[in-house]
Amino acid sequence: MSEDPITKSHSADFPQDEPRIGVYVCHCGSNIAGVIPPEAVVDFAGKLPGVVRSIDTMYACADSGQRLIKEDIAKYGLNRVVVSACSVRMHEPTFRGCVAEAGLNPFLMEMANIREQCTWAHGHDRAGALEKAKDLTAAAVAKATFLTPLDMIKVPVTKRAMVIGGGVAGINAALDLAEQNIPVTLVEKEPTIGGVMAQLNKTFPTMDCSI
Amino acid sequence: MVDAARQPLIEVKTFTEVEKVEGYVGNFVVTLREKAKYVRADRCNGCGACTKACPVEVPNYFEMNLAPRKAAYIPMSQAVPLIYNIDMDACIHCYKCVEACGALEAIDFSMEDKLVEQEIGAIVVATGFSHFDPTPMTEYGYGRFPNVITAMEMERLNNSAGPTNGALIRPSDGKYPRRIAIINCVGSRDKRYNPSCSNFCCMYAIKNALLLKQMHPDTEISIYYIDIRTPSKGYEEFYDRARESGIRFIQGRPSEITEDPDTHQLFISSEDITLGKVIEREYDMVMLNQAAIPQPDQNHMSSVLNVAQSPGGWFMEYHPKLRPIDSPTDGIFFAGASLGPKDIPASVAQGSAAASRASRILHSDSWQIEPTVAVVWPDRCVSAKGQACGICARACPYGAIDYTKGLAAEVITAKCHGCGACVGECPHDSITQLHYTDAQVLAQIRTLLAVEPEKKILAFRCQWCSYGGADLAGTSHFEYSANERGLRVMCSARMDADLIYEAYRLGAGAILYSGCHPQDCHYITGQIVGAKRAARLGKMFERMQMSPGRFRIEWISAAEGDKYARVINEMQSALDAIPEDVLKSEIERLKPEMAKKLTKLGDVPGVAQAMVQVDFIVDEMISREIAA
């Protein structure tokens, strides 16, 4: 292999702490464990540099799973957490909240998506799914190694809502907001509010007037 | 309607369109176009003298063009707010309205469209739906046969506030129709037009049938249907009532309507599945129960709001089950039929839900946003050394970068949305993105390609769309090659050329460069930045004689799980088509070329040190592989 062009020089801006990573591999019932043995991923991840704790859990998102992570953060002095489970679109907020409750910065948690993007997509290629789950977990461990704590950015809030569309949904949203003492601009492109509803005769199932 | 106008905290702006939405959660700036009404809202008392005086008549769209209105008009007598409009396209400038208005002086022909800006904390999008025009379905003769009408025309014809004061008449002769047919699913559940179900039309057909029966109990009414769908509370009972009242339900989709040209009587040919035969029946009038479709300007609104659309064109929620009201943009929520066809109870419920989601933000003094913003290393920025640059500022979709020659570029954190376009574009690697630093992403690439890289398909995906598409592929169990290795960044704009070079230097078999469709981009123009770069890279790889299929660019929405799976499978086939020795020698030939492009990356703070550490992980992975 040719010389690595990236490692030939060094720089200092870098996480200063020695990584102590905990890896949690979720079974998700049979959603993950029905296709790959989570223990194989646990065993693989446990030997990666920086990982000091690697374990499987039936449901990482359940109370028991989250408790395990929180207790381990204290017990093993974890400073990074990797959750190999489902999509970030599903549970990233859950696990960020979980590690934060244990006193870890929420941005020191990284997920590997081994459900939607692995076992569910490769149900008939178990060997391939297992290799992929290992790689995705290793990538999450690698990224976690270089995570730095971040603070959420606080922004001010203008206390005014805008509702676009003056049909039945928009009118109701505007009324609900106004009744909570929030000023609302209700924008309608037609010369009157009411939308399709205003054009209707009686409406089901009560057969009362629409307006 | 009246409640909304009466509520002092609601400012109703009718005849107004949303021009532009800028800013972010808690701090949106919305530009509205208040279209000229030529009647001053502060003076008009709604007396209607202008309408009486106006000599011009045009069709009234509110009455489905079944009745005229004047050029000085309100669409209906219960209009809210009760302020008249002058339709300038129809106006002949006789100024009789001005005379009739008299001392009020409410009519002002000098009015022009006005652009106004409003500062807004949260936005509810409730732009509704539109109706399918059945004219293209020539088999039903709408537009040719006068007695074939649409559901919305029926609505106006049997409405006591409508053009006939609720007297239902046949358009051909003004007589009351004794035999009426209603055809369901006109343009719905029809692969030629809209494959999906329009949700409320079954109930809607039953409602109209019952209303007509109430008015004239001797009316014969038949409803042609594919399936009757009445899943909500009380709906099945409503259907039972209709059957008990003698309304005939015929299961079958009519193939054709013909007309007797002298009497304008109509004949429907249809299968009757219950009888198991084809039937033809005669009617005085036929109502086509038309599909609900997205608004004609839904695409435009989607780009104004930077929100994505589902297949079919409706707006797309962040998550269909967990966050069904939220858009992917924090602070923007959906309600009602803009998300997909729904009836009044569901629309009202979603209106309340959206208000509740929005009020979480609006009741807070401050709101938290993710800190995945861009950061400049001032000592690396060439502008600080006097070189003209500003590439970062030009790439930024939000104007969040202050660029002055002679000074280091500066990111205005509150304006930065964290797409990473500046990071991907900076030719000097002087900007990074928190939580997606070069070191962090490179670490992922190296581990994903640790073992047998030539067999791997490395997929770069944006958080909002193609990552979601990959999720949907899994959720739908659309299987694809397990050689795919996915990697998430926030936007395709962050997919730095260096990251691609590094992946090929490591020997990646194929690379997918994916993100959203341009109109769906979560970051306004981020995708455009990513797409331009990807196209440049594609051309370069072509010049380097890389085998076709090893670099692929695809835009995949979160709704396109099938496309994600198909693309990966096609890439796998393309990879399989390259003979092993050809692929190996090509990879080896290109490695030094790629390495040449990466010589500066090691100077980026943190990167070199990180790579040394990552290689320990990679070594461990390789040794485990050998042991296995």
Query: What overall geometry of chain A do the principal axes of the alpha carbons give?
Result: elongated
The protein's oligomeric status is heterodimer
Succession of helices and strands of chain A? EHHEHEHEHHEEHE
What is the name of the CATH architecture of the domain at 438-627 in chain B? 3-Layer(aba) Sandwich
Rounded mean pLDDT of chain B is: 95
Distance between the termini of chain A: 75 Å
Low-confidence stretches of chain B: none
Radius of gyration of chain A: 25 Å
Instruction: Give the strand tally of chain B.
Output: 29
Shape of chain B: globular
Biggest beta sheet attributes of chain B: 5 strands, parallel
Figure out the total of helices of chain A.
7
Structural class of chain B: alpha/beta
Helix content of chain A: 25-40%
Helix count, DSSP H or I runs of 4 or more residues of chain B: 17
CATH class descriptor name of the largest domain in chain A:
Alpha Beta
Structure description:
The complex is a heterodimer of chains A (211) and B (628). Chain A has 211 residues and is of the alpha/beta class. Chain A has two domains: 21-145, Rossmann fold; 156-211, no CATH class. Chain A contains seven helices and seven strands, in the order βααβαβαβααββαβ. A four-stranded parallel sheet of chain A has the order 2-1-3-4, with helices on both faces. Chain A has a two-stranded parallel sheet with strand order 6-7. Chain B has 628 residues and is of the alpha/beta class. In chain B, 30% of the residues lie in helices and 21% in strands. Chain B is built from 17 helices and 29 strands. In chain B, a hairpin with a 4-residue loop joins strand 16 (266-272) and strand 17. In chain B, helix 5 runs parallel beside helix 6 (235-244), helix 12 crosses helix 15 (561-577) and helix 13 (497-505) crosses helix 16. The model of chain B has no long low-confidence stretch (mean pLDDT 95). At the A-B interface, helix 4, helix 5, helix 6, strand 5 and strand 6 of A face helix 1, strand 1, strand 2, strand 3 and strand 8 of B.
